[in-house]
Task: structure prediction
Amino acid sequence: MAGIDFKLYLISDRSLVNKPCCDVLEAALAAGAGAVQLREKDLNIKEIMVLAEKMRELTKTYKAKLFINDRVDVALAVEADGVHLTQNSIPVAAARKIAGDRLIIAQSTHSLEEAILAQSKGADFITLGPIYETKSKLQFGPPIGVQTITKVKKKLKIPVFAIGGIKPDNLTEVLEAGADGVAVISGILSSTDVFGETKKYLELLK
Result:
């Protein structure tokens, strides 16, 4: 899909930062991050809307794409570029029925079977993981490894973004396995230099 013109997909997590969330994400955007997913599951809908509106302005300023986790209504309300659905969200087909062609629809997957299903239901791209061990993805079980990326890429035509424990020192291995890009949370947000760390990822993703 023409709208997926990025390789680094940054996912927000306020619990990892000790500054205002928007300030940290702006540092990554200033470094060249092409897409950000707003994913703050502890916030109520009103709080999410406020943050989403701020992020929409920021992403417009830096000409980056904004995705909203789970909430198709919020994504449409703030004119985000896309929505990111989990395995517990409304189905991809239902999201498409609501949004039409106004949103890019991403889907989280954790196995070959889930990846194939996501494509068949109309997802525009998927995240696949956890590839490596990471605290943020412990609930999804043991790491699935880079070999799963290769298996999935053989079956899918849509872009596959690897997620879970991806750092600059293992990113090349992930790309060699066939990933179209990477989704990152703590690898960037836990850094004391978000701008510099984002640049490291982008250099490797060229």
About this structure: The chain has a mean pLDDT of 95. The chain is about 40% helix and 15% strand.
